[in-house]
């Protein structure tokens, strides 16, 4: 059987939103709460914006939002379905969208962890430093390396899920593998649909960062960490709710970061 490689949900953003619905815009609301809690100014850069749902929520909350992604398909979908922000194509491992142009950078859903190497992470943080005004915020939400690297291998049996969209049922089989040497969580996902389409094989990976390791990188690039905790957040259980205070531990499978660019070197 033929099988093509790619990313079904990135290539078809409407499927992404069907597979991962967020009608309450929980991630965007959590990000806006952080921006308000730490008194960020109105100009926001959303890195790894995906389909644009969170960027559009921040725009609706009164922010001036520039939203960046590497996927042309995602950006085209965002411009059509979630207008308001200025959508641009950029690689988060190194970008230049205007020096000192933003009061805050937001990076949700583990987008920061596509920086697989130390050099890529340095490039990301250096670009954020150059894009932010002194005192600007970096707000990020990601998987927690301490949770995954401190445990046994992920389940050997692949996880199976399915959803139906416009009469077609899509079935995914997902296997995770820890690459401890590279500190990567590698994912292989196979997609099949009952409409006779060709199966798709996806291979992706996320860098797994320990909380103290992340603190070290941030400090080296001129940031002071204001909050670094495992929840509550938009993808924790139970999820974040308005008024919830930031946590004080970093043991769970998610990590939530708020850091401020120091006003002096």
TrEMBL record:
Gene3D superfamilies: CAC2371-like domains, Vaccinia Virus protein VP39. It holds the Pfam family Methyltransf_25. Residues 44-136 form the Methyltransferase domain. One of its GO terms (biological process) is methylation. Residues 232-251 are annotated as: Disordered. It comes from the Bacteria. Keywords: Methyltransferase, Transferase. GO terms for molecular function: methyltransferase activity. The keyword Transferase applies. This is Class I SAM-dependent methyltransferase. It comes from Streptomyces nitrosporeus.
